[in-house]
Amino acid sequence: MSPRTARPRHYLMCRPAHFTVDYSINPWMDPAKPTDNGAALAQWEQLHALFLRLGHTVELIDPLPGLPDMVFAANGATVVDDKVLVARFRYQERVAEAPAFAAWFRQNGYREVRQTTHSNEGEGDLLVVGERILAGSGFRTDRRAHAEAAEFLDREVVTLELTDPRYYHLDTALAVLSDTEIMYYPGAFTPDSRAVLERLYPDSIQATAADAQVFGLNAVSDGERVILPEAAVHLAERLRARGFTPIGVNLTELLRAGGSVKCCTLELRH
Ligand code: ARG
Q1: Is the CB of 265 under 6 A from ligand 1?
Q2: Are the CB atoms for 125 and 171 separated by under 8 Å?
Q3: CA nearest neighbour of 120 among 131, 132, 136, 102
Q4: Ligand 1: which of 25, 70, 75 to mutate, most ligand atoms within 8 Å of CB?
Q5: Is the pLDDT confidence value at 194 over 80?
Q6: 169 an active-site residue?
Q7: Catalytic residue among 14, 56, 146, 263
Q8: 230 with 250: CB under 8 angstroms?
Q9: Architecture field, domain 10-267
Q10: Which of 55, 89, 181, 251 could be cross-linked to 177 through a Cys-Cys bond (beta carbons 3.0 to 4.6 Å apart)?
Q11: Residue ranges of domains in the chain
Q12: Is 25 in the pocket of ligand 1 (CB under 6 A)?
């Protein structure tokens, strides 16, 4: 097994100060079930502390009242070579997050900040794998935004079609492990998209339905350490066998909104 090497990363996160589930835009969200804001904050703090302990740099964007999903910072933009493609949210409930992210990037010295014309939900659906971007569609991000991303970010963009409403964002069904490796749950994709993934990444880890169900694929890797929900025990085994170091975290409170590790973590690529 080749030794893995971690690359220090730069992330943007948003403390879940206003987190709650008071609307439903995915099958995980049930406004009738009460959430515990204190628990959400404590779990998120653990993830934040873990990133710092691993040597990564984490920036914070101020959470805004009335935007309970803003904790899922990964959806705010996609950043490649300091170019920022700002999200255009599909549902009205999240639309106001986009200008907040755009403002953060402008205030922090990013000069190329552009919003797509068509819906795109940032790294929820646009996942950077080395020189390529894998782009989800079917629930949130419009295929036409894939073309906009390819043009603005100057990367090859491969469209993947999602079919299962529980896995409405690409990052709930597929995780980037290194510049050349991914893991994914085949059941979330159309047969055509499965064939594309098999062709591009023949040696991938294929997750089970049980791993996907606990959001095991909503993971963040630095090339060596893979942070994922602790309930994804089978996936952790598979990662270990490939020479990665899986680190399980507990983000069950945020899962009530249909998000976990990756959703909370937007990568800033320079
Ligand atoms: N409640 C949020 C939504 O449905 C969760 C977003 C999760 N984020 C992600 N990157 N998958 O939009």
Answers
A1: no
A2: yes
A3: 136
A4: 75
A5: yes
A6: yes
A7: 263
A8: yes
A9: 5-stranded Propeller (3.75)
A10: 181
A11: 10-267
A12: yes
